[in-house]
Amino acid sequence: MALTLTDLGGKKQAADRAFRGLTLAGGATILLILALIAYTITNKSSLIFRTEGLQFFTQKRWAPSAGKPVYGALSFIFGTAVTATIAILLAVPISLGLALFTTQVAPKWLKRPLVALTDMVAVVPSVVFGLWGIIFLAPKLVGFYENMHNWFGSWPVIGNLFGRASAGRTFMTAGLILAVMITPIITAIAREVIETTPQTDRDGALALGATRWEMITGAVIPHSAGGMVGGVMLGLGRAMGETIAAALVIGSSPVITANLFSAGDSLPSVIAFQWGEATSDEKRSALIAMGLTLFVLTLVVNFAATAIVGRAMRRMQGMS
Amino acid sequence: MTAVLEAAPERDPSAELLDELSGVSGRRRLKNVVMTALMGLSVAIIAVVLVLVLITVISKGWSIVSGQFPKWFTKDIQLSPRRPGPGMKAAIVGTIVVTATATLIAVPLGIAGAVYLNEYGKRNLFARILRFFTSVMAGVPSIIMGLFIYVFWVVPRGVAGLNGFSGALALACLMLPIVVRSTEEMLKLVPQNLRDASYALGANSSRTTLTVVIPKAAPGIISGALLAIARAAGETAPLIFTIGASKRTNWNVLDGTNTSLSLQIYGNAKESFVNAQERAWGAALTLIVLAVLFTIAARLLSARITRSSS
Please, what is the end-to-end C-alpha distance for chain A in angstroms? Predict the structure, then answer.
């Protein structure tokens, strides 16, 4: 660097290099932690993989306290997939609507309050959503689930999704709570990529006689679709890993069923819920192995999401 | 900068007016109105949910916090979940000391990492890899951080490993990527000519960073750190595995089990006793007030930095 010109003397140079090393170490901690997470969790999971083998992933029976304990993670993987899917299906239209309304429709004075509204949702701790879900929301949803069952339960094929609701704590309730919780992150990223749409593109669309909606579908969405997909995937990762809210409202019963109104369970939820009772090494190892499964799943999703968002942002900044 | 943006036509010429002028067909106009209404609806849905959550927490929480005032803040937690009262002091203290410890670990490391990224690494390969993995780490579920610290830190120490410090380590893992990312954003905003001026006066890069760059970005860095703190203070999952269970006030993070507001909400929400549920609502109100205070502080600071930089 340029400072060598003034020759600051060996001592100062050494201090400078030490400082640089220090900051490098701070950054490298991140890589170290990620590597350690992967190593230690895999290490502790090995016990259950030795006893159960790959059946850990393929059998749905979870009976840790049976005479001969069986540890199968399939129903928890299923539950994670179902709740995350419900959450994404509900959160994506709402988040995109919220982001488009904030950036394209709302008058200038309303923008700040709308951004603050979304941010406030992110500030509410996960456990508070869980508390609200289990005590306030779940009991109220039972009647709604009953109605849905009465209306759609007898329809072919999709009727299977709307079976009987045993209680308010179900896959659906967990999906609903997760949808609310991932809305802020999807909205924030969607808002950011939408804002990069060049004003000229939007003006051009309007000048050609497009309505506002046609301007959005013709100019804004094509421009920001890549970044939006990345944002949705970040939301998906969040929905899969969100623990406490789901643990409280999912019902904690490991089943595989098409019925969305059935109690179920998911990977993070079972780890949190059964950790206290897990006294045997085997059960702890099984729960940690579920953590490993979750870690790998979210890592894959986040890898893809980060790559997509990064590329979209770079490309769009280059264009505008 | 913002002034220029404001001067430019921020909003398009009224779309409705354009419709009138260009004689847009009824069907297209209808579609436009319907879709705009749907966008408005999504705003309404989120607003209603947020307001419902906040009203429930405030009304249910206030009745217990004010009913038990001042014991709520001065007495330890009732040992039997089915009995009422008296306090939540142990959890308030636990949340504060554990989050503070996590902050002391994560914020200096995070700032150091961000300084490396923005002042030294810049666009080199290692910095790009680091940036990528920082984003990836921000998406790792918080429960994984708890499991990691349990396996890595608690297990080798046995029962004595269940203490506030272990919880703080797990929270610090969670905060670290958030602090790195927000700090780097703030360092990017520091004008290059300030650095150049400092170098021209003969300062070396460490001195420039410590006396020019970081002070200039300080409000933004603090604001990002406060958001990370608010997030960590509300976390439950990393603590389940690491701080044990206690209902007594424990100021010592290094020794003895501890508790937190979030753990008390989680534990009491699972109970069917009315008194336990009331405690959960009270703890939820206390926690939200803490989180909101931190967020407002962060917002005020970041408002100040945007004002001073424009």
Answer: 32
Q: State the CB neighbour count (10 A cutoff) for residue A174.
A: 35
Angle between helix axes B164-189 and B274-309 (nearest 10 degrees) is: 20
B88 in Cβ contact with B72 (< 8 Å): yes
- Chain B residues with CB inside 8 Å of A37's CB? 140, 144-145, 148
> Measured between beta carbons, which residues in chain A are less than 8 angstroms from residue B54?
124
Model confidence, pTM: 0.90
Cα angle: A24, vertex A26, A27; to 5 degrees = 65
Strand partners, A63: A70
User: Cα separation of B180 and B282, whole Å?
Assistant: 33
Dihedral, B154, B159, B164, B167 alpha carbons, nearest 10? 30
Question: What residues does A245 pair with on adjacent strands?
Answer: none
Contact of B238 with B167, CB cutoff 8 Å: yes
Contact assignment for A107 to B140 by CB distance below 8 Å: no
Indicate the Cα dihedral angle A78, A81, A86, A89, nearest 10°: -150
Residue-wise pLDDT for A226-285, tens only, equals 889 999 999 999 999 999 999 999 999 999 999 999 999 999 999 999 998 888 899 999
How many angstroms separate the CA atoms of A128 and B286, rounded? 11
User: CA–CA distance from A30 to each of B61, B171, B172 (Å)?
Assistant: 38, 14, 11
What's the complex ipTM? 0.91
Torsion sign over Cα B149, B154, B155, B156: positive
